[in-house]
Amino acid sequence: MCFKNIVSSLPTYQRLVYLCKKNMQAKKPSASLTTLTDLVLPSETNPLNNLFGGELLARMDRAASITAGRHSRRIVVTASVNHVAFNKAIPLGTVVTVEGKVSRAFKTSMEIYLDVWIEDRISGKRTKANEAIYTFVAVDETGSPVEVPPLEPETELEKQRFDGALRRKQLSLVLAGKMKAADATELKALFV
Ligand SMILES: CC(C)(COP(=O)(O)OP(=O)(O)OC[C@H]1O[C@@H](n2cnc3c(N)ncnc32)[C@H](O)[C@@H]1OP(=O)(O)O)[C@@H](O)C(=O)NCCC(=O)NCCS
Fold first, then answer.
1. Which helix (H) or strand (E) holds 59?
2. What is the CATH number of domain 3-154?
3. What string of DSSP letters covers 97-137?
4. Phi, psi torsion values for 87, nearest 5 degrees
5. For the purposes of burial, counting CB atoms within 10 Å of the CB of 63, is it exposed (0-12), middle (13-18) or buried (19 or more)?
6. Per-domain residue ranges for the chain?
7. Which whole number is the average pLDDT over 89-97?
8. How many whole angstroms from 79 Cα to the centroid of ligand 1?
9. Could you tell me what percent of the chain has a pLDDT over 70?
10. C-alpha 50, offset from chain centre
């Protein structure tokens, strides 16, 4: 077994210790915070003059990509879009802000949480319109996954999102056919 495989097979805690020693310092979610503000233009709307869903997905993907890149300082690719909720329609002319933060870093993948805010033109008051969760993987120049620094959540919300991330990762892997449901320990724990 090569050294890289030995490290990969270590339990999470020992791997964290190894990565820290290897100078993979844990990073805080604030270090990857990405804020993308833009208007809704006529070419980006549906027949009801609201923001087209695919346009919002693209904006979130861009914000998530920058977020994952800031955390890992590597090339990153979208592995999965785990959850999107279009709770509020976003009308033409609205100022839309997409905020991305890494919510948990695994070995080579990162969960990115995206919150979408709209801004009242007169009062400036911000309202949460949508949210989404993307998974990105850090890769080298040949597209092979590479390890990323661990994440150290700080705020209550960051800790909550960190805690749920392994469950969401397992669900995403099961749905993608990359993990057997029987191996999804975090998911099973919800039902016992
Ligand atoms: C994403 C990609 C790099 C994963 O490569 P792979 O050979 O499957 O590598 P692995 O199986 O080792 O997975 C790498 C990591 O991604 C995670 N992953 C892979 N698919 C996932 C999914 N559907 N949901 C959540 N995590 C996923 C794995 O769990 C692993 O995480 P970890 O190392 O943190 O534990 C590869 O599938 C790829 O390049 N896909 C295309 C990406 C792309 O072009 N995106 C743009 C879409 S247009």
1. helix 53-72
2. 3.10.129.10
3. EEEEEEEEE-SSEEEEEEEEEEE-TTT--EEEEEEEEEEEE
4. -80, -30
5. buried
6. 3-154
7. 95
8. 5
9. 88
10. 25
For the CA of 106, the nearest atom of ligand 1: 34
| Residue 146 Cα to ligand 1 middle (Å) | 11
For atom 41 of ligand 1, the residue with the nearest CA is 79
pLDDT band at 190 (very low <50, low <70, confident <90, very high): confident
pLDDT of residue 12: 61
Residue of 106, 137, 169 best suited for mutating to test ligand 1, as the one with most atoms within 8 Å of CB? 137
| Pocket residues: Cβ below 6 A from ligand 1 | 77-80, 106-109, 135, 137, 139, 143, 145, 169, 172-173, 176, 178
Distance CA(103)–CA(170), nearest Å, equals 15
Total-model pTM: 0.88
In this prediction, residues 154-182 reach a mean pLDDT of 96
